[in-house]
Amino acid sequence: MTFKEEIQRRRTFAIISHPDAGKTTLTEKLLLFGGAIQVAGAVKSNKIKRTATSDFMEIEKQRGISVATSVMGFEYQGRKINILDTPGHKDFAEDTYRTLTAVDSTIVVIDVAKGVEEQTEKLVKVCRMRDTPMMIFINKLDREGKDGFDLLDEIEAKLGLTVTPLSWPAGMGQRFKGVYDRYDKKLILFRPHGRQEEEESVKITDLSDPRLDEHLGESLAEELRSENHLIEEVYPAFDKEAYLRGELTPVFFGSAINNFGVKELLDCFVETAPSPRPREAEERIVQPDEDKLSGFVFKIHANMDPRHRDRIAFLRICSGVFRRNTNYLHVRQNRKLKFPNPTSFMAAKKEVIEEAFPGDVIGLYDSGNFKIGDTLTEGELLHFKGIPSFSPEQFRMVINKDPMKQKQLNKGLLQLMEEGVAQFFRREHDGARIIGTVGALQFEVIQYRLQHEYGASVDYEPMRIHKAVWVSSDNPDAWKEFLTRRRRDLAKDIHDQWVFLAESAWILQTTQENHPEIVFSFTSEG
Ligand code: G4P
Questions:
Q1: In angstroms, what is the span from residue 109 Cα to ligand 1's centroid?
Q2: I want to staple 22 with a disulfide (CB 3.0 to 4.6 A). Which of 27, 139, 179, 292 is the partner?
């Protein structure tokens, strides 16, 4: 196979949802189709359960398991599919945001009864920022839920997407008879009892076909016809190019647990979803089919075993071919590195690979060289854009309980922050060390890991901070005045960038108003 064909056949994506909508179940069904797993239940164990809110031992255990399922690669219809796993727990949302920088498209799962939920809104917003093409799977049609058109309205209103239904349900819950696949023009029949191995489908290209009545009964058939008519009038026809630009979102209906409607989604997905897309670096746009290797680290995973301090850095390949035991430039450190054991994640098992192509994600064993956002190239100084830090919402001051272990503490904090566990700020006027996170769980994870991996013991003190916002200005006078006037509320992050620690939303707003020359930024591309 040629290099270009290898790129063309790759589909690298993530499935995102509000917890409980069915992301794990759908992932599992896709893996079953690809023969990557043989039994249901294999992915389940990766979930950080809601019950684990303060059980960090459990989180540690699950973190270990999740290395294996961080990337799930499999072959389907000649395509190489890479599913990048994202943690469902909202306290780990930042991990998810970063993973979204490494995919070319996403599938969004929505529960038919619950509609668009909070976490869905946040994640879709991140995808929209990057024009990532999305497909939506409305799940749990075997249960009673919201009316299909109401759901589409809700999706358009809350998520700001233009949608086009590519399948449409006939009934729902008790009356659920199946879906009409508008893309492939066939009726797929639902058998409510028992899991379906093979879907039963009837090719019906024209909905006036009387076989529709035979299979659905007259009233459902009529309903489907008139709803389909309405769809044709109201919603734009599917346009692959618009989808690829992130401007049109196809919607599918089904029931993941019953493996129903999943194959239609997967078949349309492999055909239409984008192969690896060009990537924007600060210096230029990088095309996937360029000869020279480039890639960036979007995730770092610490080793579970504290005796081995090594970590796994996940590299998304953007261009060229990655080869084992070859020297590559670590751009930030300006030095050459080679990797004897690069790992791929096929079929949930890890194996050492000889080469990998654009779109692939490989694991590199790392003894502390990498941090999130780092780039590898064959010599060019490239810095990929768009791996943001999000302004954290929970803050605590770090108190060192054991002054003899200052060094260990510093090292531990630095490494954990490089892994992206949380963000670290040092307040300018008193040197206070502040950790900011998007969720409360990370504080416990950090405390636990500092103790067990670095032998440093810390306590926290609560802080009255509403948000940390990156600040900068092109106007030297305004900047100087800002630094003097707001001195007590300023800190630096680990990249030495200035951050304003706003005590309340009101203070943030008035400060913005009082300092119009200062740019306040809620994400940083550090
Ligand atoms: P998540 O990863 O998005 O958090 O969701 P997950 O797949 O774990 O699914 C959440 C719950 O919804 C699970 O039930 C799952 O079985 C159920 N579910 C998924 N797809 C469907 C569907 O098509 N129809 C119906 N009726 N239920 C579905 P649970 O009771 O939380 O877990 P379990 O005991 O079934 O494992």
A1: 12
A2: 139
Q: Is 143 in the pocket of ligand 1 (CB under 6 A)?
A: yes
For ligand 1, the distance from its centroid to the CA atom of residue 83, given in whole angstroms, is 19
Euclidean distance between CA atoms 261 and 258, whole angstroms? 9
The tokens for 87 are: 């943690």
How far, in Å, from the CA of 96 to the mean position of ligand 1? Answer: 20
Q: Is 55 in the pocket of ligand 1 (CB under 6 A)?
A: no
**What would you measure as the largest C-alpha separation in the chain, in angstroms?**
83
Pocket probe for ligand 1: among 16, 25, 89, 193, the residue whose CB has the most ligand atoms within 8 Å is: 25
Q: pLDDT tens digit string along 451-493?
A: 888 899 999 999 999 999 999 999 999 999 999 999 999 999 9
The residue nearest atom 25 of ligand 1, judged by CA position, is 140
Could you give all domains of the chain from N- to C-terminal order, each with its CATH number? 12-66+104-272 (3.40.50.300), 279-377 (3.40.50.300), 394-521 (3.30.70.3280)
The answer to whether 520 and 512 are in contact (CB under 8 A) is: yes
Q: Which 3-state string (H, E, C) describes 265-315? A: HHHHHHHHCCCCCCEEECCCEECCCCCCCEEEEEEEEECCCCCCCCEEEEE
Atom of ligand 1 nearest to the CA of 260: 23
The pTM of the whole model exceeds 0.85: no
Q: Which residues, in sequence order, are bridge partners of residue 111?
A: 115, 139
119 touches ligand 1 (CB under 6 Å): no
Give the pLDDT means over successive 10-residue stretches in the chain (526 positions): 96 93 89 70 50 48 56 89 81 80 96 94 90 96 94 96 95 89 89 61 86 90 94 95 97 92 92 95 96 94 64 93 96 94 71 93 88 93 78 89 91 86 91 88 86 91 92 94 94 91 94 94 68
CA of 514 to the centre of ligand 1 (A): 50
Q: What is the pLDDT of residues 220-261, one digit of tens each?
A: 999 999 999 999 999 999 999 999 999 999 999 999 998 889
Q: For ligand 1, is residue 98 a contact (CB within 6 Å)?
A: no
For residue 112, how far is its CA from the centre of ligand 1 (angstroms)?
12
| Rounded Cα–Cα distance for residues 170 and 176 (Å) | 6
Contact 442, 395 (CB under 8 A): no
- Ligand 1 centroid to residue 350 C-alpha, Å: 27
Give tens-digit pLDDT for 152-206: 999 999 999 999 999 999 988 888 999 999 988 899 888 765 555 566 788 888 8
- Amino acid making up residue 94: E
* Stated length of the chain: 526
Alpha helices in 160-247 (DSSP H): 211-216, 218-234, 240-244
Which residue CA neighbors atom 29 of ligand 1 most closely? Answer: 20
Counting atoms of ligand 1 from 1, which one is nearest the CA of 47?
2
Q: How many alpha carbons lie under 13 Å from residue 431 in its C-beta half-sphere?
A: 1
Distance 41 CA to ligand 1 centre (A): 11
